[in-house]
Amino acid sequence: MTNPTRPNSGRIVYLLRAGLIAGVVVAAAAFPLVAIGGLTAKAGANLVEKTPADLLASAPAQTSYVYAADGTTLITTFYEEHRRYVPLAQMSPYIQQAIVASEDSRFYEHNGVDPKGVVRAFVANQQAGGVSQGASTLTMQYVRMALRDSAKDPFEVQQATEQTPLRKLREMRLALDLEKETSKAQILERYLNSAYFGHRAYGIYSASEIFFSKLPKDLSPVEAATLAGLVKAPTAYDPASSDRKAATDRRNYVLDRMQAMAYLSPQATATAKAEPIQLRLSSPPNDCMSVPEERNSWGFFCDYLKTWWSIQPAFGANPLERLDKLRRGGYTIVTSLDPKIHDAAEQRVLTEESAGSPFAHGLVAVEPGTGYVRSMAVNRVYSLDQSENGAHSDPSRRGQMKGNYPNTVVPLLGGGGLPGYQAGSTFKMFTMVAALDAGLGLGTAFDSPHRIVSIYPDGSGGPTDCGGFWCPSNASGAMSGRQTMWSGFGKSVNTYFVWLEQQVGAENVVRLAERLGLQWRTDIDKRQASPSQANKWGSFTLGVSDVTPLEMANAYATIAAEGRFCEALPVVSITGPDGTPATYRSGSGMDLEIAQPRCNQEIDPDAARAATDAARCPTGDTPARGSCGGWSTADRVRGIVGRPVAGKTGTTDSDRAAWFVGYTPELAVASFLSDPDSPMNPVGSGQANKPIDAVAGFLKDALKDQPVRQFNPPSDRISA
């Protein structure tokens, strides 16, 4: 499309800048011919706060797109105004022609303000005795939209859109200045990306998608004319309404204008006008409730992504600002969610048996060495509708509210405000790693009795019949005898690990757990973890603290990565509308990509390798160095997974929760079973195998056809 040479309108520009004909221009453009006293004086003081540079810098809100790890599978979008910016070269020439023909036929002839249009509007409005016609050029309309989009508060929005002579004069002056700074093509491109077409479609990309399910470059003359006709009055000319006569009449008007400007031949115009409006309506998803119905469980991961986003300082000063940036920033977000891995997780927790159970059965998978969260699956439906949910399992709340099953949006797997669940003996990993990191060897031995009188006072949660001290015992008499870290971990010998905790110091174990990402969310956990109390927290090694599956999977991923801790991360890339990666300023003053793994070496690599060697014992695997002592708590796992695997079982007092956390070099997985509505409600001893089987089956399926990787053995020094 070529731009005809624009005639010199210097006389109009001079008079307008001088304010000598301001009242006449504005009145003619938008108002009856009346006296507008004092307008020129006010204009001089109020119409210079924005510049063309400000308008060009202002960016309208754009939709953020969220994809799975493959970069193509759409999870959902976030927007306040559904818009995606596209360059003019990616728009059909018909939509460019249709907009010019319908909104500003002299667009290529004027310098931002159309003198002929002013006169025409003046005559029409005087004859009508009111506003029957305006004189806003495309440039002036774009100025109005840019002022609105760059507004910092509601008052500036009002200033940009109110029907006053002062606003019209402001638009004219800025339009004249803008056309001196930029080309007609750039103005038309920005206009088409800013205009509202109705049906929550902002900009031509969204309009093409919502009304015709196609890209702007593929619009036909009929479709382009239909969309161009909407700009003047999106509701009145909405073709999706029950009565399409108004939309058809408006479309035909635009087609006639296109013919008058020689964009269409008379024959092409007649053919186009004879066609009925044929829509292919689509409704773009918005937020986590709009994940694909067949992928409902992605909603829990999506919710975790939002929570993570809301705490990233790079996106704003507070959670509200950050989420506003998500809805308006036009980001392309490729998440860490792997659809194939997630399918394998769903198969293990979304069973027919578990669908209507008050017990939540969940699984979280994290990639060692990156922190990428590859799956978050739970036996729940992501939905706000709880009308058909089961009864609440807490007797004190039953009858007052529904339970959170099968429908819920509660973050049961981590990443939200839920404290989590006690994880039992899975915490023995923290005691073992703290001991290894402190220089003790895997062969550190202790004659473990069935019951031990601990140095810890009974205030830490144990029985009170041991002279005021905590007296933990083993689950079975078969666990008694001389144990090392290999056998003590494989059999889950409580008395061995209480003794080991005493050797290294309970506070050191608590601090080690913090280094691996654990947080304290309940008042009692915060108090027990405090500097004044942590060294008395003997029961910590038996998993009495609340923790989330996400935290446990990520903590064990650190061991799998030979001591390299990485923050749990739900994204692998985030790019802005211009295609550049989103960054944040690190504590050292460096600009880093937000999606870059945030890792540091928290544990001596040899200590982590030693912990893994002992952690092979519970799964029935064979350690590289020592002996597992003849039996273990989950010895079938190695046979199911079919490759080197480590992990730990965990149950709590009275079987209120059951856990298994397992890992290979490729993936770390935490699975749990508990009642989130009533944590005191026991799952029962018969349920303890469910998390074990879920992790084993998941690892088998998720790693199918992948090369078998071996764990690196620990050194002779730490194996002693």
TrEMBL record:
Parts of the chain that traverse the membrane: 12-39
Keywords assigned by UniProt, alphabetized: Carboxypeptidase, Cell shape, Cell wall biogenesis/degradation, Glycosyltransferase, Hydrolase, Membrane, Multifunctional enzyme, Peptidoglycan synthesis, Protease, Transferase, Transmembrane, Transmembrane helix
Pfam families noted in UniProt: Transgly, Transpeptidase
GO cellular component, one term: outer membrane-bounded periplasmic space
Recorded GO MF terms: penicillin binding; peptidoglycan glycosyltransferase activity; serine-type D-Ala-D-Ala carboxypeptidase activity
The keyword Glycosyltransferase belongs to this UniProt entry's keyword annotation: yes
The keyword Transmembrane belongs to this UniProt entry's keyword annotation: yes
Catalysed reactions, as listed in the record: [GlcNAc-(1->4)-Mur2Ac(oyl-L-Ala-gamma-D-Glu-L-Lys-D-Ala-D-Ala)](n)-di-trans,octa-cis-undecaprenyl diphosphate + beta-D-GlcNAc-(1->4)-Mur2Ac(oyl-L-Ala-gamma-D-Glu-L-Lys-D-Ala-D-Ala)-di-trans,octa-cis-undecaprenyl diphosphate = [GlcNAc-(1->4)-Mur2Ac(oyl-L-Ala-gamma-D-Glu-L-Lys-D-Ala-D-Ala)](n+1)-di-trans,octa-cis-undecaprenyl diphosphate + di-trans,octa-cis-undecaprenyl diphosphate + H(+); Preferential cleavage: (Ac)2-L-Lys-D-Ala-|-D-Ala. Also transpeptidation of peptidyl-alanyl moieties that are N-acyl substituents of D-alanine
Domain annotation Penicillin-binding protein transpeptidase: ranges: 364-677
GO biological process, one term: regulation of cell shape
Family designation: In the N-terminal section; belongs to the glycosyltransferase 51 family.
Identification of the protein by name: Membrane peptidoglycan carboxypeptidase
Species, as recorded: Plantactinospora soyae
